[in-house]
Write a structure and sequence with these properties.
The chain has 262 residues and is of the alpha+beta class. 17% of the residues lie in helices and 37% in strands.
């Protein structure tokens, strides 16, 4: 079901200095097969509007078929066979007045019969680089779990050689996500999303334009504001050009990676 999620996003840095903050956002949850035909006042697919979802903001390997075709092609490159009739639900931030920044999006992949197959987390940094992480295991708690090397420069205050620990819930009336960062077997950063499902309607989109004004600019602004606070507090800073060997399989690579020594 296409819907919205009204969410609380929280970050808590544990080491080397404690720093925490949280903020409110909303996200779209849409079936990729239904996205092109979605008609709402204030919303468009691949066109300018108050809110929009644009294929260019997501996985793009140059394959036909938009987001879905490119995601399936990426999964095939990972040795994962995604059925042609699989249902793929995208949970993501929209563009606002043509400007977008998605720090993270999620693709929930189910069989035609509704059996959960996998989740793909799509992480984007402020250089607009992108890296995908596939999660295929669920625990006794019914949540998706995977701990994996980051191999990605997400923040100047987080070494790309650390690890992500994903715990992802299934979008329903309530939705939860935890992405913790580990270094040397210690948790150094906790990140979470807690969402409640809302009806996707034209009236609600108009209301959210006032309730969450310029959402995309607020997200990128908060990222830079809290980075400034960490820099002022002298938290160790890692430049993008450092630890290039730990920045692997990155999509839309920054120029620093293009000159990486083999």
């Amino acid at each position: 079901m296409n819907s919205l999620y009204e969410c609380s996003v929280a970050h808590c840095r544990l080491k080397p200095k404690r720093h925490a903050f949280d903020y409110r956002v909303f996200m779209f949850s849409v079936d990729l097969d239904e996205l092109p035909a979605l008609r709402l006042f204030g919303f468009s697919h691949n066109r300018f509007n108050l809110f929009s979802i644009d294929d260019r903001d997501h996985v793009d390997l140059g394959h036909p078929g938009g987001i879905r075709g490119n995601l399936i092609a990426w999964l095939a490159g990972q040795g994962i066979d995604c059925p042609d009739d699989a249902r793929i639900q995208l949970v993501t931030f929209p563009r606002v007045l043509g400007y977008g920044f998605n720090p993270v999006s999620f693709f929930y992949i189910d069989s035609k019969e509704g059996k959960p197959l996998a989740v793909v987390a799509e992480v984007v940094n402020t250089f607009r680089e992108m890296k995908l992480y596939v999660i295929q295991s669920t625990g006794a708690d019914g949540l998706w779990h995977r701990r994996v090397a980051k191999d990605f420069y997400v923040s100047p205050f987080s070494d790309p050689g650390m690890e992500f620990d994903f715990t992802l819930g299934v979008p329903a009336e309530k939705w939860r996500v935890n992405i913790d960062t580990y270094g040397a077997d210690e948790r150094v950063l906790l990140s979470s999303i807690r969402g409640e499902q809302r009806e996707l309607s034209s009236a609600r989109l108009v209301w959210y334009a006032f309730k969450y004004p310029l959402l995309s600019l607020r997200i990128i602004g908060l990222i830079h504001w809290h980075a400034l606070i960490l820099w002022v507090r002298r938290v160790p800073f890692l430049r993008k050009s450092e630890h290039l060997e730990a920045q692997q399989n990155v999509m839309r690579p920054h120029s620093s990676l293009k000159h990486k020594t083999p």
